[in-house]
Design brief:
This protein is mainly alpha-helical and about 160 residues long. The chain has helices spanning about 1-10, 30-45, 50-60, 70-85, 90-100, 100-115, 125-135, 140-155.
Amino acid sequence: MMLDAIRSLLTKPAEQPVESPKPRHDVDPLHLAACALLLDIAHADGEFSDAEQKHLEEVLARHFGLGREDGRKLLEIAEQERRQAVDHFRFTSVLHAGYDLGQKMVLAEVMWGLVLADGEIAEHEHYLTRKISNLLELEPAYLASAKATAAARVEGRSDPSDQGS
């Protein structure tokens, strides 16, 4: 009986669709997944600074089109989900399936903007950003481009290739 159970486990087709977690809230699952990952990055250095909070609120308004109340609601729910998660796959699998390459690139820029928001790049923030980007299957060149774009925005330049004064 036990042997049959093990055998059936091993003989199941390898390419089964990944089920996303059942939505327990009335928020967009893509927004929830992205926000949970962003919160994880924000907390990676042990401090969720005011600059990181402000950056995240601006992202929710600009990229997700959320007002202040809806943004706060999403942040609360995403924080709960983040704390309960045992790994990042739960969130990255939703984003991998729901985002195209351009949207993943924008998310990478947002992640780097969050890392750079407080003026310091902590080792764990850097590691976590690269790990999440890898789970989203972003190539290193895309990640470098996203980091340069985010750095240019933080420095007040609109073009990352602009090395001017």
